[in-house]
Amino acid sequence: MRRQRHTAPMENIKGKILIVDDDPTLVRLMSLFLEDEGYEVCGVLDGFEGLQQVHKYQPDLIVLDIMMPRMDGWEVLQRIREDSDVPIIMLTAKAAPKDRVEGFSMGADDYVIKPFSMEELLLRIRSVLRRCYSAPARENARLKGIIAVLQQEADALKAQNARLAEEIKALQGRGFEADQQLRDYLRPEAEVIAAGFAHKMRNYLGAIAAWTTRLQKRAPQNDPNQKVYELIVKDAERSLDLVEDLVNTVRPVMPRSPEPIQVGELLAGISELATISENVRVDIDTASALPPVLGVRDELKLVLGNIVQNAIEAIGPMSGEVKISVTRKGGFIHFEVSDTGVGIPEEIQERLFMPFFSTKEQGLGLGLYLSKIIVESFNGDIGVRSQLGQGTTVWIDLPIANGVSQ
Fold first, then answer.
1. By CB neighbour count within 10 A (0-12 exposed, 13-18 middle, 19+ buried), where does 135 fall?
2. Which residues pair with 320 in a beta bridge?
3. Computed over its alpha carbons, how large is the radius of gyration of the chain?
4. Domain boundary at 248, 279, 312, which?
5. 158 within domain boundaries
6. Which partner from 36, 83, 252, 253 sits 20 to 30 angstroms from 126, CA to CA?
């Protein structure tokens, strides 16, 4: 059968794009973004309707999700290629090369791996269309529609966070005191739930950050909303970190390769955390000629950064100091992070490393819990000592890398 060859895009638009994805919110966000860039967009929510629109809408390009119910993206791609050469960009959460090779062999023109930024999607669409058409450029701003979508998503996130807080309280009330008992309770169902939750939240939060950054760049430098835009982006990024924390508590531990790490590498950039609060000074005191520790660099930097940030936040609006000291202690490197905050009651100290427990209003209460898991996975230890009115010290012992003289 002879395949249909689509003509060049119309002069008054950049091209007609068909989006096929079962996530209605993501479809709306992609549609608004691409329409804002001057594209004509049609969005559908399943493969069957997508096939109908290929012939009815006659798109110049298709953005096609792989994972959909009823008819997945692979089958849609195969059927389209039976009679059409329309360019197709696949959306996938799978980053394995074999999956991309399979898609290209079936006739896909490009891939975008979830989670993705709208800017990346736009660049890939432009690249594919450039190979097929000569389309004129035109800006068509639709910021009011974009802001409305973002507000709806913010309201939905707020409601979802409230429900999650109630579920956490319910879990704590059931008496899950042991870490392993809680982890056994959550698996395997929670692995699937967390993966799906994280997948959607990364898309939504990434879109919020991307659009807010776009609004910030378009607004004048003296616009009073500039600070608001900055805060929205920071909150979205922090929410992404919370999503990762939640997923890390239930997903299986991935294979890792511990290696010797210099103490200086772990402390690099820590002092910059002082910018969180203008009234807190961060001092670092390390002993000379310290040997390397054994671990995974990114994980240990995450642990130290989380503890230092907690210390800064514990001081609050008062002026204070966070002191980081590093010494050698037998076969371990001993880290201490001390703050001059209000301190922690003794009965609460015993619960600090439990999952979903937090002394802060915001957060899931997973930071210290994950820190404990990471440190102990390298045969290290972590603990806390605190006195009310005098501050708190969190200490970590990390083993010296093998081959270093004790």
1. buried
2. 280
3. 26
4. 248
5. yes
6. 83
Q: Are 352 and 365 in contact, with CB atoms under 8 Å apart?
A: no
Q: Where are the beta strands (DSSP E) in 228-343?
A: 259-261, 280-286, 293-295, 320-329, 332-339
3 state DSSP class of 226: helix
Q: Where is the domain boundary, 132, 158, 187?
A: 132
State yes or no: cis peptide before 317, omega within 30 of 0.
Answer: no
Domain assignment present for 406: no
> Could you tell me the residue range of the domain that residue 190 belongs to?
143-248
Whole-number pLDDT of residue 152: 59
Strand order from edge to edge, sheet including 16-20: 40-44, 16-20, 61-65, 88-92, 110-113
102 vs 110, 168, 283, 376, CA distance in Å? 12, 42, 53, 41
Q: How far apart are CA 251 and CA 11, in angstroms?
A: 50
Residue 104 domain flag: yes
Up-side HSE of residue 122: CA atoms within 13 Å toward CB? Answer: 18
Number of domains in the chain: 3
CA dihedral 27→28→34→38, nearest 10 degrees, is 140
Identify whether residues 46 and 74 lie together within a single domain.
Answer: yes
- Close Cβ partners of 206 (under 8 Å, ≥ 6 residues apart): 115, 116, 117, 236, 240
The total of other beta-carbon atoms located within 10 Å of residue 86's CB is 22
Contacts of 62 (CB under 8 A, 6+ apart): 17, 18, 19, 20, 50, 54, 80, 86, 87, 88, 89
Q: Please say whether the dihedral angle defined by the alpha carbons of residues 124, 195, 161 and 358, taken in this order, is positive or negative.
A: negative
Mean pLDDT per segment of 10 residues, for the chain of length 406 residues? 46 76 90 91 93 90 90 91 88 68 78 86 88 44 44 63 65 50 50 58 72 80 78 73 62 65 86 67 88 89 87 83 92 94 84 75 69 88 90 94 60
Instruction: Classify each residue of 198-213 as buried b or exposed e, where b means 16 or more C-beta atoms within 10 Å of its C-beta.
Output: bbebbbbbbbbbbbbb
Distance of CA 200 to the CA centre of its chain: 10
HSE (CB half, 13 Å, CA atoms) of 54? Answer: 26
Q: Are 303 and 373 in contact (CB under 8 A)?
A: no
Q: Which residue has the tokens 């929205």?
A: 232
d(C-alpha 324, C-alpha 342), whole Å = 18
> Nearest-5° angle of CA 159, CA 91, CA 203?
20
Q: What is the DSSP string of 6-73?
A: PPPPPTTSS-EEEEE-S-HHHHHHHHHHHHHTT-EEEEESSHHHHHHHHHHH--SEEEEES--SSS-H
